[in-house]
Amino acid sequence: GLTPSERLFKVHTNIDPTSLKISSDIEYYLFMNLRAEHCWASHQMTSTLYVEATQCYNNALAAAYHNKSSRPPVKKIPRAIMEKLGETEAEVLDRLARNDF
User: Fold this and answer.
1) 43: nearest Cα among 86, 12, 77
2) Distance (Å, whole) CA 19 – CA 11
3) Among candidates 82, 66, 58, 19, which has minimal Cα distance to 2?
4) Which positions ≥6 away from 17 have C-beta within 8 Å?
5) Would you say 31 and 57 are in contact if contact means Cβ atoms under 8 Å apart?
6) Which of these, 82, 23, 22, 73, lies nearest to 51 by C-alpha position?
7) What Å distances lie between residue 67 and 13, 39, 64, 72, CA to CA?
8) Are 43 and 36 in contact (CB under 8 A)?
9) Closest to 60 (Cα-Cα) out of 40, 85, 32
10) In angstroms, what CA-CA distances link 93 with 2, 18, 87?
11) C-alpha gyration radius of the chain
12) Region 17-45 average pLDDT
């Protein structure tokens, strides 16, 4: 469920807070696979490419949940893709600097 502050955010913005982040295992591994497949890199992304990447991600997410008995996933917004991409690239660079493969 949502925290009280997330519920308040949803009421006042009409945006589901879970659409702002990629958090579950399925979402994370799907993002990483699509990132590799489509060569997403933040320095090459434009607002249009983020929108296209988000559409691609949401379509793949819906397909991943299609055969599951759980409720359908919440569609992500481009900001979720942008933040996860930046977070992932920073983590990769940090691990490379520490020789932590």
Assistant:
1) 86
2) 14
3) 19
4) 2, 6, 9, 10
5) yes
6) 82
7) 31, 27, 7, 10
8) no
9) 32
10) 32, 27, 10
11) 15
12) 95
With b for 16 or more beta-carbon neighbours within 10 A and e for fewer, the 3-36 pattern comes to eeeeeebeeeeeeebbbbbbeeeebeebbeebbe
Work out the burial of residue 42: count CB atoms within 10 Å of its CB; fewer than 13 is exposed, 13-18 middle, 19 or more buried: middle
| pLDDT, mean over the chain | 93
Q: Cα dihedral sign for 95, 37, 60, 15?
A: positive
Residue 87 Cα distances to 18, 36, 38, 52, 83, angstroms: 17, 15, 17, 19, 6
Q: What mean pLDDT do residues 25-43 have?
A: 96
